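Here is one chain, start to finish.
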Amino acid sequence: MLDKKELNLISHYAGIVKEVFGFDMCLIGGWAVQYYANPPATLDFDFLCDAKLFDLAQDRFEFSRVYPILKFDYGFDVKRTEEPELVQLGFPVLWLKKDNIRVDLFGADTAFRKSVLANAENIPGSDTRVATVLDMLSFKTISNRVKDRRHFNILKKQYQLTRAQLTEISDNANKEMMERG
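Its structure:
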């Protein structure tokens, strides 16, 4: 569960992304898990953005338009994933870093990711949206790192998932992995 200070921090970074890019987006990753439960906090913010993010990152003219805003107006170091195969594997399209904070921007380029963006819920008291619990569990299944398995178990226990919900999570993860190749 997030406190007011954490919600303000999320809203701050989400606001920057919305202002600079103007894309539909939602919070995913560790901060989204923390919104629903109480795992250890993370220092990076992960946002799933409209698939237009891919075009912007690859278009030199568009990227050169947003880069100085991010760099000079907001003080971010900006890195884009140059290798399309890494993006295909699910890596962030853009990384923004400032001090000890990193903001990872992922694109909604698959059917599953588009549905995550469409199903995202509003965070009360904020203009930021967050992926649903079931969608977060699907992401955690796909990533399957030690911390992802820990997050999965925390959410599974807290939400007492049914067999049908677990099947849906598994199906979503399988579809995403198949589409990613």
